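Researcher: We're teaching a course module on how sequence relates to structure. For the next exercise, students receive a sequence and then see the predicted structure as tokens, so they can try to spot secondary structure elements on their own. Here is the exercise chain.
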Amino acid sequence: MERLTKTGFNYDSGFVASRLQSWAIARALKKLSAYEDSGLTPERVAELAEAERDGRLVVLPCKVGGRCHTLRIAEETTIKSGIVEDILLLVKADSGEAMIMTRRNTFRSHAGAKAALAKMQEGG
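Model: And here is the predicted structure for the students to work with:
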């Protein structure tokens, strides 16, 4: 998408507002500039908004390749630290079964999971 605002431009300045004859336009330009700075496409923003409405959006405390620290609770509670190699999500299904979800084995649709299973069984 073509950028409509200037990078690093101060849309809060009185000069801009007086030139545009409206603080509302200056505020709208500031918001548009922040959106453009994010690098997200309108489709990605819509996808994230839908995931948030559905309760599927999770902000993780770390990323793959980053360092994380966690409490290990045993007889003596200690802090464990390390570089993240993968992120797993433990989900309890309504069947009572626990499923470990990773970015490699989790799909949004049954059809997607079925296609991946077929590919694995073919040796691909």
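Model: If you want an answer key for the exercise: The CA atoms of residues 105 and 113 lie 8 Å apart. Helices lie at 14-20, 23-38, 42-54, 110-121.
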